[in-house]
Write a structure and sequence with these properties.
Helices cover 46% and strands 5% of the residues. The protein is mainly α. The chain has a domain at 39-108.
Length: 122
C-alpha cells in the first residue's frame, strides 16, 4: 500500500530540493462586489473616478449659457468642480483610512503602524 509523503499542509518545490509550505490565498469574490458588497476602498476608488472622469466630459459644459455673475457656464462649472472634487477626494481618503484600520484590526495588527525613527539620533 502506497502512503502519501505529504504532511498536514501542502508542499511544493521551489528550485532544487528545497520545500516550502504553500500558502493559501484568499481571493475576494468579484461577484459579491457586483451585488453591492463593497469595501471602503472600492467606494473611495469610485469617488476618485468620478472626480477624474467628470471634468473630462467636456461636452457636458461646452457652452456659454447660462451665465452666472457675468461668467459663461464653462467657467463657473469648472470653478464649481474644484470644491466638489476636493470634497470627493477627502471622503475617499477617510473611507480608505477607515478601511485600512478595519483591515489591520482583522489581521491582529495595531490600528496605526509603529513610528519609525528618521535616523541620526544622538
Amino acid at each position: 500500500m502506497a502512503t502519501s509523503s505529504r504532511s498536514s499542509f501542502d508542499l511544493h518545490r521551489l528550485g532544487g530540493d528545497r520545500r516550502v509550505p504553500r500558502r493559501s490565498v484568499s481571493v475576494p469574490c468579484i461577484g459579491s462586489r457586483l451585488l453591492g458588497h463593497q469595501t471602503g476602498l472600492d467606494r473611495g476608488r469610485l469617488l476618485l473616478a468620478v472626480g477624474i472622469v467628470v471634468p473630462l466630459l467636456v461636452g457636458t459644459y461646452d457652452s456659454e449659457t447660462p451665465r452666472l455673475g457675468g461668467f459663461p457656464f464653462f467657467f463657473w462649472y469648472q470653478f464649481l468642480l474644484i470644491p466638489i472634487v476636493s470634497a470627493l477626494t477627502y471622503v475617499a481618503f477617510r473611507l480608505s483610512e477607515s478601511a485600512t484600520k478595519r483591515d489591520r484590526r482583522a489581521r491582529g495588527l495595531p490600528e496605526q503602524p509603529a513610528e519609525q525613527s528618521k535616523g541620526g539620533q544622538a
